From TrEMBL:
One of its GO terms (biological process) is phosphatidic acid biosynthetic process. PANTHER family: 1-ACYL-SN-GLYCEROL-3-PHOSPHATE ACYLTRANSFERASE (PTHR10434), POSSIBLE ACYLTRANSFERASE (PTHR10434:SF55). GO terms for molecular function: 1-acylglycerol-3-phosphate O-acyltransferase activity. GO terms for cellular component: plasma membrane. This is 1-acyl-sn-glycerol-3-phosphate acyltransferase.
């Protein structure tokens, strides 16, 4: 994937020194394009971490792509089924083994018209509170220019720039010792998404919306 990444985009990587080099860690990021897992994998690998991606189970059956996600030791996710809980259990075990879980709390590419992060789902927060693993917010920008959401083929010319900004760990200490009820998980998720959005606002040089887009209300 690294040669493909170098070929397709220029790099503007910031805050890489904030990425823990060892120990279990949850890397929470925004989702703009089907291309950003590849580009983020390159960034994380170059900063000392092997990215463990949660990928839709159907991707494991796609020629070439299925081989790639298996070789990356990705965790399959069966959306809308009881098996989804199994992916979180496997993620927790990978964290105990010192893995770096690349998590998209939104669950899908953003539907916000201006491509800001949406309201997140609670899986990453639950995993963080139950495991005690740090959550590192990572924002990125540019993958959507290479491969807009819904497109089949990339747009390599002119060559795009893939920008990454790593923030400090999300402070979830106020939730320590509290039972993971729905209101706690939603509040912790909001804190995680706010941290990602703050990094993206700095990366874009723009002011983020006061209220995140909620796809469930549309």
């Amino acid at each position: 994937m690294k040669p493909l990444s170098w070929l397709l985009v220029k790099k503007d990587w910031r805050g890489g020194d904030r990425m823990p080099r060892t120990g279990g860690v949850i890397i929470a990021t925004n989702h703009l394009s089907w291309a950003d897992p590849v580009l983020l994998a390159h960034f994380l690998y170059n900063h000392g971490r092997w990215p463990v991606v949660l990928a839709k189970s159907t991707l494991f059956k796609v020629p070439f792509l299925g081989h790639a996600v298996r070789e990356m030791c990705a965790i399959p996710v069966d959306r809308g089924s009881d098996e989804a809980a199994r992916s979180l259990r496997e993620s927790a075990q990978r964290l105990r083994d010192g893995g770096a879980i690349l998590f998209y709390p939104e669950g899908t590419c953003t539907r916000d018209p201006r491509l800001w992060p949406m309201v997140g789902k609670t899986g990453a927060a639950r995993l963080a509170l139950e495991s005690g693993a740090p959550v590192i917010p990572v924002a990125h920008w540019g993958a959507q220019e290479l491969l807009p959401y819904g497109d089949t083929w990339p747009r390599p010319l002119p060559r795009k720039t893939f920008r990454v900004m790593v923030g400090p760990p999300v402070d979830l200490s106020k939730y320590a010792g509290r039972a993971p009820h729905a209101d706690v998980l939603r509040a912790a998720t909001a804190d995680i998404m706010a941290a990602i959005t703050a990094q993206l606002a700095e990366l874009r040089g723009e002011k983020a919306p006061a209220v995140p887009y909620d796809s469930t209300e549309r």
